[in-house]
Amino acid sequence: MNQPDFDVIVVGELNADLILTGDVIPAFGQAEKLIDDATLTLGSSSAIFACGAARLGLRVVFIGKVGDDEFGHFVIAQLQARHVDTSGVIVDPSIKTGLSVILSQPHDRAILTHLGSIAALRYAEIDQRLLARGRHLHLGSYFLLDALRPDIPILFAAAHRHGLTTSLDTNYDPAEVWDGGLHDVLAHTDLFLPNETELQAIAHLDDIPSALAALSTDSRLIAAKLGPDGALVYSKGQIFRSPSVAVDVVDTTGAGDSFDAGFIYGHLAGWPVAQTVRFACICGALSTRAAGGTRAQATLAEALAMDVAIEE
Asked: How many distinct structural domains can be found in the chain?
């Protein structure tokens, strides 16, 4: 039997991030505020996840769409520099590449996003042959993928037919509707990876353990990211908790995506749930050491070394 070419196939949005760092709040009325730093970096939840997974040593291919413009060329170059295969990325000259402007404070951030190419990826554009070449399919930013969203259940079902496992990180719903056919996608989702806010909104429950139980099944594991409080995982009726780890936080952008990368690494390695969630929390925490979602992502050696230190 042939070995798959890719450990992870990532489907999702692509954009650049302009990150403005400083403990300030913008104000209209032409009020000028000074910030500490400005960084143009690879953005998008899905791309940050892809880079984190590749940084851990997984073989990753990306399926997404960009415009034929400076930001699009920048995004593709950044992915390739981080050893992510971009053969599934569509370049569309008729549309602008998405862009997010992020005001990042030490423990919070505000985001303004121009969707552009983010919302334009269609199911018909996805090279179905890639599904036969992977072990796992991950999709991010569900609520931003307007053109693809109606067909995501079909995509996940196709992945299962090819023997792949699947994971989903919805990210925030800008419309705050928290549905859009999501439950049809969850029926084909093996690993659901929301943060606390997303979990509560989707389950319509404020209590985290109750929300986890409500959305889980015997075949679906849910890992809820709790920021500085670590994570809670519900799997087959059991709850696993892992604390975060202390680091000098510079920017929390993409920490949840790096958590996802660590979690998928553990999943594909066949680790126990408790070990997997602890490793994921380490990956998420280490990613906050520099501005942007990818600059400080952990290598496998770094994450394992911290895991050993925690165990000792």
From this structure: 1
Q: Do residues 252 and 291 touch, judged by C-beta distance below 8 A?
A: no
Is residue 272 situated within a structural domain? yes
Tell me how far apart the terminal alpha carbons of the chain are, to the nearest angstrom: 41
Residue 1 lies in a domain: no
Which two tokens mark 66?
């960009």
How far are the Cα atoms of 113, 131, 234, 236 from residue 126, in angstroms, in the given order? 24, 10, 32, 33
The C-alpha atoms of residue 144 and residue 184 are separated, in whole angstroms, by 17
Q: Are 231 and 220 in contact (CB under 8 A)?
A: no
CA atoms of 213 and 199, how far apart (whole Å): 11
Interatomic CA distance for residues 146 and 95, integer angstroms: 15
- Our CA dihedral for 81, 82, 86, 89, rounded to 10 degrees, sits at -100
Q: Over the stretch 195-226, which tens digit does the pLDDT of each residue have?
A: 999 999 999 999 999 999 899 888 899 999 99
CATH of the domain at 272: 3.40.1190.20
CA dist., res. 298 & res. 7, Å (int): 18
Query: Could you give the C-alpha distances from 79 to 178, 181, 229, 239, 279, in angstroms and in order?
Result: 30, 30, 30, 35, 23
- Mean model confidence pLDDT for the chain: 93
CA 96 – CA 116 distance, rounded (Å): 5
Residue 53 lies in a domain: yes
**What pLDDT sits at residue 180?**
78
Residue-wise pLDDT tens digits, 30-68: 999 999 999 898 989 999 999 999 999 999 999 999 999
Residue 173 in any domain: the answer is yes
Beta bridge partners of 85: 61
Q: For residue range 247-265, what is the model confidence (pLDDT) as tens digits?
A: 998 888 899 999 999 999 9
Nearest one of 268, 267, 263, 305 to 4, comparing CA atoms = 268
Domain that holds residue 263: 6-27+34-311
Q: What is the pTM of this model?
A: 0.92
